[in-house]
Design brief:
The chain is of the alpha+beta class. Helices cover about 45% and strands about 10% of the residues. It has one domain: Endonuclease, Chain A (3-Layer(aba) Sandwich), CATH 3.40.960.10.
């Protein structure tokens, strides 16, 4: 199967995808703020620059796009590797997954716990994702 778009059009689309302040990330931030949680955004001093960090709890949340971080759930419809230019995409996506593992391991060595929230979780079952996030964070500190 070939790509329906030209190489230039596909490249333009892929360049436009943000790595910060995505819709899933903004939804989680809005929810947590309403719940009374306070956090830091994309701290440069932490491995992987987590989307949200909670320094007093030593906890970090990554909100991963299923495609870019290759969500391993078999029922995830978003993680499909493009059928065109596989020599480029497979190694690139593997590097992303490898980097994610390294960042999580490095955070553990620093005494931090991390949670990954997947894009499809926020689309398909927001209540379940929210419950998982709250369980990870524990009680709100006052």
């Amino acid at each position: 199967m070939t790509d329906r778009l030209s190489a230039e059009a596909r490249s333009r689309i892929m360049r436009a995808i943000r790595n910060k302040n995505t819709k899933p990330e903004l939804a989680v931030r809005k929810y947590l703020f309403k719940q009374g949680y306070r956090y830091r955004l994309h701290p440069k001093q932490l491995p992987g620059k987590p989307d949200l960090s909670f320094p007093s709890r030593k906890k970090a949340i990554f909100i991963h796009g299923c495609f870019w971080h290759q969500h391993s759930a078999p029922d995830c419809p978003i993680r499909v590797v493009p059928s065109s230019n596989k020599k480029y995409w497979r190694p690139k996506l593997r590097r992303n997954v490898s980097r994610d593992r390294e960042n999580a391991a490095h955070l553990r060595k620093l005494g931090w716990k991390s949670l990954v929230v997947w894009e499809c979780e926020l689309r398909d079952n927001t209540a379940k994702a929210r419950k998982r996030i709250k369980k990870f964070l524990g009680k709100r500190q006052t």
